[in-house]
Design a protein that fits this description.
The protein is built from 2 helices and 3 strands. It has about 70 residues and is of the alpha+beta class. The chain has one domain (about 10-74): Double Stranded RNA Binding Domain. The protein has a 3-stranded antiparallel sheet, covered by helices on one side.
Length: about 70
């Protein structure tokens, strides 16, 4: 796992501390500066986590016989 250093600005708003990553537009909060930073770390880890593989639907081609009379009505 690669480690990278980021910078956070921390503001106190009433009883909460807001930690905002300056390099990437991600923020988090906590009841203390330490909790706000820990929550910001978790948010950044989730941000950089590889996406879950998506299940692609199975595609199939098929033929349908359409009689001349039926085709004229379309």
């Amino acid at each position: 796992m690669k480690t990278q250093t980021f910078t956070a600005s921390i503001l106190q708003e009433e009883e909460l501390f807001i930690a905002r990553c300056l390099e990437i537009d991600i923020a988090s909060q906590g009841k203390s500066e330490e909790e706000a930073i820990e929550n910001l770390k978790e948010a950044l880890e989730l941000y950089f986590e590889p996406p879950c593989p998506t299940v692609m639907p199975k595609l199939r081609k098929f033929e349908v016989s359409i009689g001349a009379d039926e085709f004229d009505r379309l």
